[in-house]
Design a protein that fits this description.
DapA-like; lyase; alpha/beta; eight-stranded parallel β-sheet; globular; EC 4.3.3.7; 12 helices; TIM Barrel; 300 residues; single chain
Length: 300
């Protein structure tokens, strides 16, 4: 296993669909290439990718498509968490086989109010069944959606039991105190907040970067802010304004609507049920709000 820590800005890549809601693979590849060119890594098959609305075969195919298109595996994280351990094992092995940098693993999310012992057993089974020294797991803490938190005590148990396999944590709780506690207690891990705003605040405390939905539409600025203290100071207000604007809308639909505006490709509007695209009024509000942010940036 590599001893290099995972770090940097990763975009949890949103997935483009055709009108019939099948995946537009060429548009997906083009978007991934643009994100890499803008200085970000990519995270495939995460929450913002609508991975839980995609089939097992689709998730495998998207990883293959990106790697076969020449995107370097060391810039790729893959979401492999599933309720069924065997599915998680197969997705994880595939990501390793394709040379990806790491896997982002949700806890099993259907059964709620499960014990910490049960969640530990899930990760233990995954690690032992994969049985590969190249395995690098980023634990995915997103309790608002999963309903199954990754507690500090669980992280500690997993690190003690599997120090070579547990590489980091993505903290999507939005809770600053929780993020600060992770950074303090686990300095050897790559801790990624799910917001570039929290990244800017936590970099001095040792954050590894961020895995942020808005990197899909603002990757160059966020990657520049991560790479340079001077750039962070210059770009902070604009980065924060973009993020706060998008947070006022359903995130996946808002990111996709913005991509449709940026690329001129109306297909980016499509989401799979149960998600819904932005209503016309909300889309207009978002367009005007972002235009105001960009105008303010130009004047700064």
């Amino acid at each position: 296993m590599s001893t290099d820590k995972l770090q940097g800005v990763f975009a949890p890549v949103v997935t483009p669909f055709y009108d019939d809601l099948s995946i537009n693979v060429p548009a997906f590849i083009a978007h991934c290439r643009q994100l890499i060119a803008d200085g970000a890594g990519i995270a495939i098959a995460g929450t913002n990718s609508e991975a839980c609305s995609e089939t097992f075969e689709e998730r495998i195919a998207l990883v293959d498509a990106v790697i076969d298109a020449g995107v370097p595996g060391q810039r790729v994280l893959v979401g492999t968490g599933c309720c069924a351990i065997d599915d998680a094992v197969a997705l994880t092995r595939h990501a390793i086989d394709r040379g990806c940098a790491g896997v982002l693993v949700l806890p099993p999310f259907f059964f709620k109010n499960v014990s910490e012992d049960g969640v530990f057993a899930y990760y233990r089974e995954l690690i032992e069944r994969v049985d590969d020294p190249a395995l690098r797991i980023v634990l995915y803490h997103i309790p608002a959606l999963s309903g199954v938190p990754i507690s500090l005590s669980l992280i500690e148990r997993l690190v003690q039991a599997f120090p070579d396999a547990i590489a980091g944590v993505k903290d999507s709780s939005g809770d600053w105190d929780n993020l600060a506690a992770m950074l303090e207690r686990f300095p050897s891990l790559s801790i990624f907040p799910a917001s570039e705003v929290l990244m800017l605040r936590s970099l001095p405390l040792g954050a590894a970067g961020c895995i942020s939905a808005t990197s899909n539409i603002n990757a160059r600025a966020i990657a520049s802010a991560y790479s340079s203290v001077t750039e962070a100071a210059r770009l902070q207000d604009g980065i924060t304004a973009v993020r706060k604007t998008l947070e006022g809308f359903p995130m996946v639909a808002a990111v996709k609507h913005t991509l449709s505006q940026q690329t001129g490709d109306a297909g980016w509007h499509h989401v799979r049920p149960p998600l819904m695209p932005l209503a016309a009024e909300a889309a207009t509000q978002l367009k005007h709000a972002l235009a105001g942010v960009r105008a303010a940036e130009a004047r700064a």
